[in-house]
C-alpha cells in the first residue's frame, strides 16, 4: 500500500514538474524527484528544506512540488515511526498548501484538481485539499495532546 502510494506521489510529482518555475527552483525540484525515485528520503528532505526556507518566493509550481514532497516525507517518516519528523513534514505540507492558496487561489485549485485527476488515472485518489485539512486537524490534536499537563 505504501509502495503504491509513493509510486503515485512520484507520478503526481512528475506531472506537477510540467509547470514552469524559476530555473534554480526547477533544478531543485528535479533533484527532489530523483532523490525520491532512488529512495533517498534524507536527500529529498534536505532539498525540500532549502526550497522551504525561501517559501515566500517560491513559484506556484514549486509550492505544488513541495506540497507533494512533504506529503511523501510524512508517509515515509510515519512508516519509520519517526513522530517528530512526521509531524514536521505534515506541518510543512500544510504551510506549502496554504502558501499556494494565498499566492493564487484559482491557479492553486486548478493545480490540485490536475493532481487529483492524474492520481485517478493510476487507480488512486490524491485529494490535496482534503489531505491538507486532515493534516491540519491531526496537527491540532497533536498540539493539544502535547500541551496537556500530566495528571
Helical residues, percent = over 70%
Largest sheet report:
none
Share of residues in strands: under 5%
- Uncertain segments of ≥5 residues (pLDDT<50)? 17-21
In DSSP terms (H or I, runs of 4 or more residues), the helix count works out at: 7
- Counted beta strands: 0
Q: What string, H for helix and E for strand, traces the elements in order?
A: HHHHHHH
* Rg, Cα atoms, Å: 15 Å
Describe this structure in words.
By secondary structure, the protein is an all-alpha fold. The chain has one domain (2-147). Helix content is 79%, strand content 0%. It has seven helices and no strands. Helix 1 (2-16) runs antiparallel to helix 4 (60-79) and helix 5 crosses helix 7. The protein is globular.
Name some characteristics of this structure.
single chain; 151 residues; mainly alpha; globular
Quickly describe the structure.
This protein has 151 residues and is mainly alpha-helical. It is 79% helix and 0% strand.
SSE topology sketch:
Elements: H1 2-16, H2 23-38, H3 41-52, H4 60-79, H5 83-103, H6 105-120, H7 128-147
Amino acid at each position: 500500500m505504501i509502495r503504491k502510494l509513493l509510486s503515485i506521489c512520484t507520478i503526481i510529482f512528475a506531472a506537477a514538474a510540467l509547470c514552469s518555475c524559476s530555473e534554480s527552483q526547477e533544478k531543485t525540484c528535479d533533484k527532489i524527484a530523483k532523490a525520491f525515485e532512488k529512495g533517498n528520503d534524507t536527500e529529498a528532505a534536505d532539498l525540500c528544506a532549502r526550497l522551504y526556507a525561501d517559501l515566500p518566493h517560491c513559484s506556484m509550481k514549486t509550492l505544488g512540488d513541495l506540497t507533494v514532497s512533504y506529503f511523501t516525507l510524512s508517509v515515509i517518516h510515519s512508516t519509520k515511526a519517526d513522530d517528530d519528523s512526521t509531524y514536521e513534514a505534515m506541518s510543512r505540507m500544510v504551510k506549502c498548501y496554504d502558501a499556494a492558496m494565498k499566492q493564487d487561489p484559482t491557479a492553486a485549485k486548478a493545480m490540485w484538481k490536475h493532481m487529483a485527476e492524474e492520481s485517478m488515472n493510476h487507480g488512486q485518489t490524491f485529494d490535496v485539499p482534503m489531505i491538507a485539512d486532515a493534516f491540519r486537524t491531526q496537527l491540532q490534536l497533536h498540539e493539544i495532546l502535547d500541551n496537556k499537563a500530566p495528571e
